[in-house]
Amino acid sequence: MKALLMSGVMAFALLGAAGGASAAECGDVTIASMNWQSAEVLANLDKIILNAGYGCNADIVQGDTIPTLTSMTEKGQPDIAPEGWVDFMRDILDKAVADGKLVYTGKSLSDGGVQGWWIPKYLADAHPDIKTIDDALKHPELFPAPEDSSKGAVFNGPPGWGGTLATTQFFKAYDAEKKNFTLVDTGSAAGLDGSLAKAYERKEGWVGYYWEPTALLGKYQMVKLDHGVPFDSAEWKRCNTVADCPDPKKNAWELAEVDTVVTKKFSEKSGPIMDYLKARSWSNKTLNDLLAWMTDNQATGEDGAKYFLKNNEDIWTKWVSADVATKVKASLK
């Protein structure tokens, strides 16, 4: 942000008590939009609320997890990373926080990033005994492989994904091959989505890797299988996420922490905006539904943000003061 004159700081503090500030006092703010749907809509949501509610001159810059957070640490820009998957560079970010360069404001995803093996809800309802991965692997007949219906299939993600690697290791850890299952390489994100959508539309069996928040889990009701064991961080690092590790053990999937990260400089000058960023957190269910609407309507991140603000006042008005909420509502008319 631009340097603030002393009079601006005093006025900002006074207006901050009422929940707002003028554009001159708030100044320029840069917000990182990552290259995936949920981060795009959250960046646009912050832009609208900061500009309309707090009088900022906020703008969006394109980024991605590692380069954006590295730039914030080393160069102090951009000011805000609304959806930072901090586990990708936890040690570096924790050091930057300790060194007074960055600040975690709180969880942007209240449930965290969730990964694992899922089955359709209609199948879970019809077979209430299937609650864990081991339970599902007792029934290859319910999940017929596309190339050989005498076997069950576990659908995996495309090469190069961390989730694909972990699923491959879990397939070994849970002895899925010995239980008459085959691991299906879907080849691409579109291939994985297509396999799930095809099975769901036909009300067929499907089990495989997926994650949330995503548009697809907003469109299709899926149930995540329990891993049957608690999460073991050491085992996760030793073997569950190491491609050539020969003896993976059963394990739960690591829950990804997804935080809003701001530069220290911005946190010190943003007054009531920090209160908003600390409060602004949404559930995976809320985001799944929003992403599904965006996909169905070919909506942009800005479209999605406006749709959310117009249709979810019960959620977002709790993040801001009444004065700010009134200004944001007025901007949407």
Question: How would you characterize this protein structure?
Answer:
The protein has helices at 6-18, 23-26, 37-54, 65-75, 90-98, 121-126, 133-137, 162-173, 189-201, 215-219, 233-240, 264-269, 272-279, 284-296, 301-311, 313-316, 322-331; strands spanning 28-33, 57-62, 80-85, 102-107, 114-120, 152-156, 181-185, 208-212, 222-224, 258-263. It is built from 17 helices and ten strands. With 333 residues, the chain is α/β, with parallel strands linked by helices. β6, α8 (162-173) and β7 form a beta-alpha-beta unit. The longest helix has 18 residues, at 37-54.
Distinct helical segment count? 17
Order of helices and strands: HHEHEHEHEEHHEHEHEHEHEHHHHHH
Task: Give the neighbour order of strands across the main sheet.
Answer: 3-10-4
**Any idea what the shape is?**
globular
State mean pLDDT (0 to 100 scale): 91
**Helical residue percent?**
40-55%
Structural class: alpha/beta
Beta-strand fraction estimate: 15-25%
Low-confidence stretches: 1-24
The biggest beta sheet, please?
3 strands, antiparallel
Distance between the termini: 29 Å
Query: What's the count of strands?
Result: 10
- Oligomeric state as shown: single chain
CA-based gyration radius: 22 Å
